[in-house]
């Protein structure tokens, strides 16, 4: 079975500090991994995805994520947080075979404090 | 994403009523999806369609039906709404070219309340 865990419901960080939003996954074989962001009253916006190759993936708005196969993790990071980064972040996984479904985590609410 | 639109954006209905949520896209994508979002549960897949003639059940299809009227349109129906179908519903699309690497693009959502 495929699944994603986002262990933190809420992350608070001061503006200008680095931020990390955690994600671990479970999938048979190698995964495809995605991060989405949801701003209030908006749909999900795609940030970045890991397919293969370099374990550090760079995405939109200065975000990046690091794939760690041994720890089955795909944490989202940004070197310097902005107040405008405050939103709900979702990690998602899809296996390379079988059903094409994306499996989402429960989301992490990021609050950047001015 | 403005290329994926959903109507209505908000809807309040009563138990037992039939309701249809509509999704349209101008991205030219073959694949379309319906998800529901509940607090603390993330997004769960209801139905998906890989082309006009292809409809597949997702994780939580009971109580829902869909219709793919055209490449650009994918509707979700609740035949007899019940309160636990109160949720935020999202439509998404993908082009299918990447297979399992596909990125899905989401509409703005429909907030449905069943009283």
Protein architecture, described:
The complex is a heterodimer of chains A (114) and B (115). The model of chain A has no long low-confidence stretch (mean pLDDT 92). Chain A has 114 residues and is mainly beta. Chain A contains no helices and twelve strands. Chain B starts with a strand and ends with a strand. Chain B has 115 residues and is mainly beta. Helix content of chain B is 0%, strand content 57%. Chain B has no helices and eleven strands. The A-B interface holds A 4, 9, 32, 34, 36, 41-46, 49, 51, 90, 94-97, 100-102, 104-107 and B 1, 4, 40-45, 48, 50, 58-59, 90, 92, 99-109.
Number of strands of chain B: 11
Secondary structure category of chain A:
mainly beta
Overall pLDDT level of chain A = 92
Q: Report the radius of gyration of chain B as a whole number of Å.
A: 13 Å
User: Tell me about the biggest sheet of chain A?
Assistant: 6 strands, mixed
Q: Helix fraction of chain A?
A: under 10%
- Percentage of β-strand residues of chain A: over 45%
Count the strands of chain A?
12
Please, what is the average pLDDT of chain B?
Answer: 92
- Topology of chain B as a string of helices (H) and strands (E): EEEEEEEEEEE
């Amino acid at each position: 079975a495929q699944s994603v865990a986002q262990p933190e419901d809420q992350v608070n960080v001061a503006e200008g500090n680095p931020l990390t939003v955690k994600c671990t996954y479970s999938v048979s074989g190698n995964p495809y991994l995605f991060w989405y962001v949801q701003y209030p009253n908006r749909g999900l916006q795609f940030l970045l995805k890991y397919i293969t190759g370099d374990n550090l993936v760079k995405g939109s708005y200065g975000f990046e994520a690091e794939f760690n196969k041994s720890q089955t993790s795909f944490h989202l990071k940004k070197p310097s947080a902005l107040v405008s980064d405050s939103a709900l972040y979702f990690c998602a996984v899809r296996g390379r075979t079988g059903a094409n479904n994306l499996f989402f985590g429960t989301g992490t609410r990021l609050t950047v404090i001015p | 994403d403005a290329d994926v639109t959903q109507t209505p954006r908000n809807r309040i209905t009563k138990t037992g009523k039939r309701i249809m949520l509509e999704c349209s896209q101008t991205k030219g994508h073959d694949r379309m999806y319906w998800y529901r979002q509940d607090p603390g549960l993330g997004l769960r897949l209801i139905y998906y369609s890989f082309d006009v003639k292809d409809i597949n059940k997702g994780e939580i299809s009971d109580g829902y039906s869909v219709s793919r009227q055209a490449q650009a349109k994918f509707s979700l129906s609740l035949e007899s709404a019940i309160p636990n179908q109160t949720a935020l519903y999202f439509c998404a699309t993908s082009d299918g070219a990447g297979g399992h690497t596909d990125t899905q693009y989401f509409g703005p959502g429909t907030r449905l309340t069943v009283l």
